[in-house]
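Re: beginner question about structure tokens

> Can someone show what the tokenized structure looks like for a real chain? I only ever see the sequence side.

Sure, here's an example I had lying around. Input first:
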Amino acid sequence: MEDGEGRGLACQKIMDGKASDGVEKPIPSCCLKARAAAEADAKCHSTVVSGWFSEPRSSSDGHGKELYYNNPMWPGEAHSMKVEKILFKERSEYQEVLVFESSNYGKVLVLDGIVQLTDKDECAYQEMIAHLPLCSIESPKNVLVVGGGDGGVLREIARHKSVEHIHICEIDKMVIDVSKKFFPELSLGFEDPRVHLHIGDAVEFLRNAPEGKYDAIIVDSS
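And the corresponding structure tokens:
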């Protein structure tokens, strides 16, 4: 056993109130404080421990085979941020929605434990996913956004003067409502008069849409 692993087991025994000889001993006050903080965080939200948000643990297929580590969208990566305050947490019909204030990235939107955007760097994502396709099309007029309930992609599409109609199909209305409350800089995209909001399943929406109706379809779904 390596020294680091041995120390980890020793610390766990201290936290459990047991010495190496198995005899019950008083837990040091510092360990009690650490354990109490972790337990309080767990009651607050499962992804927040000791003041830090971390994306969920690995998932397996039930046969011991690891499907992904932490974020299923970005295998092999783990994202953690220091949490100053949890602003919103609730489960919608489709997913868990969490918003918290972080130390370095401002407000953070999390869906089902996966970070969707932060105040600090949301522009990098919104601009790339919107402007690259639209700038590759000559004078796009009709654009559809699948997902994108935070409104950031709408905000960027609205910068294109040739666009006459912007349709957005978002299945989870809670994401829209939460974004309007906590991320007004993004959700202002909904205020453009060219925007037509549809709440529902985008698959069904597209199935009923006339072929060739949209010059561009931007998928911003989680």
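Each token stands for a local structural state, so reading them left to right follows the chain. Residues 1-18 have pLDDT under 50 and may be disordered.
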